[in-house]
Fold this protein.
Amino acid sequence: MTLRRTNAVVIGAGMIGTVHATAVRAAGGQVRGVVASTPARSARLATQWDVPVAYPDLADVLADDAVDVIHVCTPNALHAHQAAAALRAGKHVICEKPLATSVADARMLEATADEAGRVLAVPFVYRYHPLVREIRARAEQGEFGAWQLIHGSYLQDWMLSEQSTNWRVDAELGGRSRAFADIGSHWCDLVEWVAGVRFAEVTARLAITRPKRPVAEATTLRQAAGGKPVATEDVAAVLLRTADDVLASVTVSQVSAGRKNRLWFELDGSEASAVFDQEQPESIWLGGPESSRVVVRDPLTGSAEQQRLSVLPAGHAQGYADCFRAFIGDAYAAMAGEHIVGLPTAGDGVRSAQLVDAVLRSADTLAWTPITSELPEELAA
Ligand code: SOE
């Protein structure tokens, strides 16, 4: 238990920065300040969010002894430098995913957090849906039997229009992978964690469906009108194989009309199956050979973790914001010294960077590609 409210600063003022600030407050922390892309924007946002300090830049945050934790919500390419600086200054860090745009930088951050003795948490927040925990608990108890097949998709449509753009389109800011790093990473984190599997190798095909998009922050009118060639994928078709030889597939898209944030997975076991849909997170489908059923979230039934994360009675819908609040609550408890099961931390960020890296290598070579640089034993044999 914390003795006083955790003092947080959010750096980065986009959609996800606002989500963090809201969740910090909901989790009982205090948003002490904000850093946006310019001092003037920091000041404007501090007023809008009603926070005490508008920091001109990160150096001012690092020098403020009252700050406990820095939330890094800036474009991906800035994460490594900013999170490392925060950890070295003795701050805890919550860093948006992808933790870094290279495996080397992600590993560097993990080592820096270890050396500094600080928590580095990564918001793979879909782990915090109560019914995701329910499936995980049932899988741990062997209810589904041995995995036969794992499949699913993560589909969005916010990049469907050829006029849609974002800093993520620019590989220099977002990294070489866009759709897979942004949302495929969530699917892989979630499925590995829920099913208790480890993907060993991957083969992936990536495609760009809009060859040109407007420049995110055009510096000239000509650039804005003409657009810029796109080098990061809109869609990905990915086949995976676990270390135990279970096949998996995931389809990732940011251009699927009508799909807003549809993370969906099905785990097919030798005894039973389980389905989770992020857009309908209040129920799960449990399939059996003779009969199947729909289980609804209910704080009065089910696994201990489902009950812990169910803060509203059954039928009173919880969702994404509740996941974020619960994640930040757990991260802050870890910062206060508690051992928290299921909190995604630096190791999970490194794992995700390895997956992104393997997907990119596989798309380049069109070959099955090991996910870690250390070849798994069964592949080395
Ligand atoms: C945009 O694609 C985005 O906000 C992601 O960055 C988040 O991680 C995901 O949870 C929702 O979509």
The chain has 13 helices and 17 strands. Confidence is low (pLDDT under 50) at residues 218-223. The longest strand covers residues 147-155. The radius of gyration is 21 Å.
